[in-house]
Amino acid sequence: MDEQTFNELNKLVLAIRALSKSVDRALMTGTYEGTGNMMVKNYRSLQARAAQLLPDDYFVTDTLVLEIEPDSSEKETVAQVQLAVQQLSAYLEGQLRGYRGNFGTMGDDFRSLGRDLQDQIINVTKYALRRALTNIDIGVNEDFDTDFDTDFGEKPKGGKKRIKIQIEKRDKDSEDESDIL
Predict the structure, then answer these.
(1) pTM over cut 0.85
(2) Domains contained in the chain, number
């Protein structure tokens, strides 16, 4: 893949992502009625451009060709476009990522580098938070009465209830030990 093909594929991936977002949104909101043919036309156009840029790639030229059954409902048609556009997007992004990995980031393509870095940071953060929160149990005592403990201070004005959150640290070996914070 030369630099010109790389740049053209980058532009194409942006258009494919836009179509993918539109198709996803249409399916989620149920606004796909009357848009199936337009989405098929848009996908076929983008897939044909990808096939033109990568003529020796059988996956793009043959496998990702969209064939819709004539008796398919509008929702089925849009769902097929959704699947195909997601496959095309993932495949082309992988091809571009592989090219960047072999030769470094080419040209002024720092926008996608920022997006990739942002995605990686978000995924690592989600994973770390998920691991940190797996051992935390928050219990709320729902036995409220009108007389509050002296730990809470004065009774709040307006009859509002206070909620006490109790955090316990349990060792795997002993279920009885607890530290109340």
Answers:
(1) no
(2) 1
